[in-house]
Amino acid sequence: MPRTRLLRVLRQAGHQPIISVVAPAGFGKTTLLAQWASSGPAIVAWVTVGQGHNDPVLLFVLLATALFRQQVVDARVLDALASPRLTSYALAGRLMAAVRDGTVPVKLVIDDLHVLTSQPALDAIGELLSHLPPSWRVAIAGRDALALPLARWRSRGTLVEIGPAELAMDDDEVASLVRHLGLEPSADELRELVRSSGGWPAIIYLGALAARRNREAGRPVVHGSHPSISDYLRSELLGGRTDEEISFLIGTSILDSLTVPLCDAVVGREGSARLLHALVRSTLLVDDRGGVYRYHSLLRQFLLDELARRETDVARLHRRAAAWYEREGSIDAAIDHAFAAGDLDHAAAMVAKVFVRYRWSGRRATTRAWLGRFSEQALEQRPWLALLAAIEETGIGDVAAAEKLADVVGRASLDGRPVDGTTSVESNKVLMRAIMCRSGAADMLESASRVVELEGPGSGWRSVALWILANARLLAGDLDGADASLADAVADAVAAAAAGHNAGTLQVALGQRALLAIDRGDWSAAAAFAREAGTVVASAHLDDYQITACTAAALARIAVHRGDIRAATDELTRAVVLRPQLTATLPWLNVLALLSLARAHLAVSDPGGAQTLLAQARDVIRLRPDLGTLPAQVVALQAELNERPIGLAGASSLTAAELRVLQFLPLYLSFKEIGERLDVKASTVQTHAVAIYGKLGASSRSEAVDLAIAARLLEAPTNWATTSHHAWDAKRLEG
């Protein structure tokens, strides 16, 4: 049924680029937006958000894919978004930068946005909608109030809002609907229907269906206090259906989308094609075309309630769905259904199956969310899973979380071989002990040697074990032994990297071999190793991973050696954003990286940058004092630095804490809101912001952002941004 009244509102508000449609299920949000999208000459891209899109990278890949299919953006944007730590500012910027022509009219619909609970994902959507090309209109729809900067858009006149009051049907629309269903109510009956239903389209439609079915001769009145939606659905939509149909409806309600083979698998019998086609004809299903169907959200919620109310083996249905999705290669859906079934063993096995691939393809938010669904007790029963979780936390620099998980691994026990490919729970324990290095360099060497014994040839973890052993030897001062183990790690990782695995281990081992060659004065070998490492970083999109810091340092040192200071500075600038990750989670690697970067900063005559890096290295050493030869190297380099004038602070002297704040400065967030995202006080954010201004030579937040962009610490905004950071109300934001 055409929503002419609302379509007129949207047409008259054509100068407002953002449309917000928020109302409970059954108010016709999707129907309205489908009619709006099909009206007028514009390219239309439509995405429906799911639970998995709380991973910001996956969410923007979804948006980019929809836009790419309509030839709105360049295909290269999909590679540009494959990063684990792109800020919301960078995600939005990269997507907008890929737009082929900002003057072409585009309508983008983002439906079911209420599903998003991830603040980074919401911030990224907010940033995207704040910087639209002038020819774009974006409609966002959800059931609940959207955690987006609506007040700011409202005050700027860029937002048109439609809620339940606007979506509610008026007398004319109700009359049109019920007459379309072959009913002729009186004026009094229509008024009563509108009054008692509150204009709720779903209630009106169901009431009209009930009247027609019961042959009540034009009396679709919801009497008095109208029954609940569930009462209607139970009595009118399930009433008169066969047991087979009811069983099918309730059993398949666990599915987001329905296909014949999937439904056959879930209900445990063939015949779904006939039932699906019958349900489509009866309007109980929405046909998404191509043999894929879904229930209206209102109906699905009722069916799920019925499923919970009846004594049905819900877990069995989810297990069947998980098995089918796994066979089809849809691991994300399979894992979700395994969790819903309470089948933690199956969920854990599938997480382990995709962990390495997802970790190195920018899907770290997804893997962290999955791992976070396992209780501490569940992790103790699966120490290999706790190991994966700990490795994930080390990768982002969360010391407290990594230590907690390391303790879980240390006290766990397990019968049988872990499913992640490691050989035993003993291997898990000594590997974790070596990684954390909490008992000192000698213990790390002993543990790493044991891991190499346990993870013999053919193990997917052998290259990691060899790399850790190489670093343990490095801490012991055995440079030749370290280089030999790094060579072994590279050789073992090459085949796995070709299959998309262990790319991280391969590049960091090559980067460290380059640093050792530099120490030997073998610049030719160093250049070859560093060049190969850089190729892996580029091809596997590892730029934003902590373990690329050594490669960046090596490339910078080599550039200085050949007299190319600009190239060296470029490498060091790229490495600045890695600093927040260089914590005590991987103390041996991160102190080495900080030392190597500090030496590179000295080589380009930037003692201020070197000073900041050494200060961060000392912070790590305070937590992990026994790191073999590394603390002495830090002291020696500091002594050399003390002989030089530091000069003025600059971008390279920003601390890890200041860099964390810097990434939020381009967003329209107050210091209080930034503090909420970083879990610190607003006063702390303000202190860091003032320090950032001073080091960059800025007098305001907007100028600091400009200078950070110029220093390549932040990505530049798109050319057709409708609202640039230059126009910010700096006093309001900084107050």
| Total discrete domains | 4
Contiguous uncertain segments of 5+ residues:
216-226, 720-735
Separate helix tally: 39
| Backbone structural class | mainly alpha
- Widest sheet: strand order? 2-3-4-1-5
Radius of gyration, taken over Cα atoms and rounded to an integer in Å = 30 Å
Distance between the termini: 49 Å
* Beta strand %: under 5%
Q: Profile the largest sheet.
A: 5 strands, parallel
CATH superfamily of the largest domain: Tetratricopeptide repeat domain
Number of strands: 7
CATH architectural name of the largest domain: Alpha Horseshoe
Using the alpha-carbon principal axes, give the shape: globular
Helix content: 55-70%
Q: At the third CATH level, what is the topology name of the largest domain?
A: Serine Threonine Protein Phosphatase 5, Tetratricopeptide repeat
- Assign the CATH class of the largest domain: Mainly Alpha
